[in-house]
Give the backbone structure.
Amino acid sequence: MKSFPANFAAEKNKKTGASPFYILECPFPSTGTIYLADYIVTTASWKGGITTKAWIKDWGQIDEDISGDMALTKVSDFSLTAIIDPNASPHLRTILETAANNIEVTDCRLYLAFRDLLGALETTDPPQIMWTGNIIDFEWVDELTMRLDMVDRSIRIDKYIGTKLDSDTYTSAHPDDIGKVMPIIYGSNNLVACLRSDWGARTTLKAAMTDSQTTVELSDASRMPASGYVVIDEEKIGYASKTGNTLNTCTRATTAVAHGPGAQTWEYKDQYDSIIAGHELKGVYDPLNPSAYPVYAEIEGERFRVDSGVEAVVSSDKHLLRATEQIKVKIEENVNLNDPGHYHNVPSSGFWYPTTGSSVKGVFTETGSLSYIIDGDPATKYGLSAIIDYAATASITANFQAYSGPTPISVYAVITHNSYVTAGFRDAGEGSVKVGSAALRIDMPIADPPTTQEVYLGTSVPTSITIDLAHPNVGGGLYEVRSHVFEIQLKICLGYTASAFTSLSKTGGIVSTRYVDRFVCLVDGYKDDGSGTITGTPSALIERPDHVVKHFLCTYVSWAVADFYTNAATEFGSVYMFSIVINDYQKIKKWLAQMAWESRCYFRFAASRAELLLRADSISSAKTITNNMIADQGGDRGDSRTTMRVRRSSLQDIINKINIHYNRDATKSGDDAYRSTTRTASDATSIARYGEKERPELFKFDFVQAQTMVEDIRDVYLARLKDRKKVVEMDLFLDNSELEFADGVTITPLSSLLCEVQKANLYPGSGQEMRNDKVHLIVKEY
Amino acid sequence: MAKIKFARASAPVCSVEFARNPSPGDYNRTIGYKQPMDYSVGGDPYIYDKGLAQENVRTLHWRNISATDYANFLTFLGLVVGAKYGFTFTDTDGSTATARIINPNDIQSAPVVTGRESLTVKIRYE
């Protein structure tokens, strides 16, 4: 809701006697600032004392929202008709056609003013900004008239962002990474595939060579420099020139050995750089604390933990991972990387089974044998069931023998289970299986037939874990709950290490070596500046959605920090956090709309600021609309026919079944990138009334990793979107001109219906056309 | 009582003074401020002052003027080219105001008897 100075507010609230007019301020860089109105007005002190040009013929209307899609940015537009005064120099047509006036990016402001406030009151109650935007088009309607089409400042976000890795700047970049976008990263715990910006050419030997040969024939030498060094297998060889794919006048820089055809050959460089992000990061690989920010070397899709040989550096505002030698991975155990039995990302793993000392407790009736959950046979199961009319829980404590092997890089509980209630009573959220301590408790979806799921437990192997079975008995009633546990295991994952080429040894436990395909980092994104401009805390990680949006606008749209507003900070608290990796070439408006949707907000440009507005659980009424405010259809005749219209929201907008895919792995693409999915939430009443309505394309969340946050958003969207609501339209006057999108209002003639403003379209009035100023309000039942 | 007169002192210099004024009831004055008016459903009036100056329109209808007056008016009308040029209007009370003909496309006249004409002219104060 707009806020106005006291005298201004009093003036706009006058039903009779108010003297409203409008001024469009156009600060053209070439012509200078002009002030347009529908008659000539001179101010005493406002803007230093200006005189308007009476060029406005018809103000048209401000349409607050031309996009009805719930996951898109809200956009408002405005069109007006102006006079080309042939006696003016320059006249409007000349001004608009002057290219140097940059009309498309010049912010024009529409002010509402009152004649009775001109003069002494201009200081305390100046004209108020009602809308800001840019002229995106104009048309000569006739010799004396032009139509101007304007759009709010969304034109500033209608541009692509991201710097692509180009082959001119990065002449030694890996060909597969040319054209890719340098990642833009926010929040913590982001897995990022680095771009090989200075990687050296890689190829293979075309033919075998001896240990005394002075020419080297390669499969492809096109990316090799004219002279320099190559490394073949582990031998460094200098060359003075190249002819086609042959390197000439070679000198053996290290112990000369023979090499076979197909041997790996790499251009030797002083350093090998990979771009982690196109900007400086809050946190990245720290060799002294690799567990905090691990770096992985990726070879043929497998990932190996890197403990040394690379360092993170900031160069030209980019965050790089720099290696001073070619990185190879030492394969220290004889594990076949292509063995489908081992887990991806965790090249070595083993299962740890519960001991027979495990126990069961709870109100459930036991069926089957407890030993079935430790026998490793997926066909045998241990069952619990109960007929209950209250919330109930049971638990299985699984004990494990002490572990004394190498320090794992991750430990998971692997549980094969199903849980269900008797057919006919199945409601969302009725059964759950939980694992671990309170801090690690993770709800699992109901599954029937059984499913095997993993729960991350950390990096140490526990001696016992507790599997909780729970039934909250949502809605009351008598239920028969059945849960079966087929297997409980621990998966203990050991990692390999990668180190610099020079430290490589073929003796001992090392059985093979491989060149690194690329590096993958776990990093924290943008940090605040030393003054805490965005977050209020100097150098803090920028991860709360409103902070991210604010920083994104300031960084990529040059938006002023002071011109950003949100009402969502309290709701976000410490629960709503983004983890964002932008490595796709898209427009800013697409990213902003996605950020808003994934934090259950709207993003819009208001009169003088960008706003991130919460789709709240509940709203309070900021104003009450009575019949004494709603325009009569009869105009000056007053025939008591209301302009209020009531309809229902579109059936297409109903969503009564939601599950959200989230926790995206930015190193992957497509649906496979989402590592987690919420349990399905649905509303049985809505489904019975409207049929099952899903919009799965809206619920793939790229920016959210936290289960608590995503489940909260899921529940809010389900509550807000499961029903058809009343949509009410009406014409009001200037006494309601403070209403804005997302304000709460009470509609008295509809039994004090609480609604949320969807549109508040301003129609400036006209004396010549004998038309009052009006606000066309569209609200939706909350 | 003064006679109604249209006169222009600067080029094109011209004037016409009618021998008689319109009869009572045939001289209408319309004053307006072009202030839009609406009602709410609850019956409250909304009237905004849009800042336009008072509009002062006079409708002059002569039922019976001489052929000379009629001819003089037509000469005057031709010189001011309908609504193109303003002029000084002398009212029946002798007051004067700058005015302009605003019905140049619809000046009605008709012979009422031999040598006598009716005439309707609409002017707007500026």
Summary: Residues 349-494 of chain A form a domain with the Jelly Rolls fold (CATH 2.60.120.260). The interface with chain B takes residues 15-21, 39, 41, 115, 626-632, 634-638, 640-644, 733-734, 749, 765-768, 770-773 of chain A (CB under 8 Å). Chain A has six domains: 6-157, 201-268, 349-494, 545-614, 616-649+725-782, 650-721.
